[in-house]
Amino acid sequence: xxFKAIRPAAGTRRQKGAIxxxxxxxxxxxxxxxxLARTNASASSLIMPETKGNTALSVVSxxxxxxxSFNSENARLRIYxxxxxxxxxxxxxxxxxxxxxxxxxxxxxxKHCERIAVFAGVMGEELGFSEREREELELFALMHxxxxxxxxxxxxDKPGRLDESxxxxxxxxxxxxxxxxxxxxxxxxxxxxxxxHHERWDGEGYPAGLxxxxxxxxxxxxxxxxxxxxxxxDRPYRxxxxxxxxxxxxxxxxxxxxxxxxxxxxxxxxxxxx
Length: 274
Prior knowledge:
By secondary structure, the protein is mainly alpha-helical. It is built from 13 helices and four strands.
């Protein structure tokens, strides 16, 4: 399992402490080839930094996480993990950790992802997905903004509009999320969905400028729910719009920003069930 590099996000003393901690964790679990942590011949450790501006840096180990009970904040979170990818055990621990990390980084973004997961479950039902497909879609919805844990908090929580440089950093979150997902076996199947969830039907999205059905189906689904929730939620720089106005905006942009069929199902069926 690839390890996420610890980057200089805090002071030198914190960096050294984090590296020492990570080194200890890796040494405790290391056997065989360098760079691959194993326990009983199965990958079992993920070293991941968590930062908030320059004020905090923590390191998580899956092997350590699965030995510990979650606090009340973690306990209230539903863990979306399809059975084929290892429901339970340390994979659930890392999904819970990532959920919690995103909530701590930005409660607004963390709660947004939870709401998108609810939309995803209903959308999966309306589209006739199997239980496994619905669970995978819900997991993706919950993790679609996970790359934002690597974006500075002062940008995520900025009370005004972003400047060009800040917007470029925000747009990197889908690629950062892809990298995180590829480093966690249970998230690897949804890594491309995370990467492409800001593509547009007309090819004017990012990061690849995919057009129409070139964009994965899951990404097209979450693009609609993501936009709707963004419009109906307050942001630091603007107030929310009404549910009716947001639904109308989805329909107006069907065929340009959104997959027209997905947009129609979302507005005519999913929103009616909320």
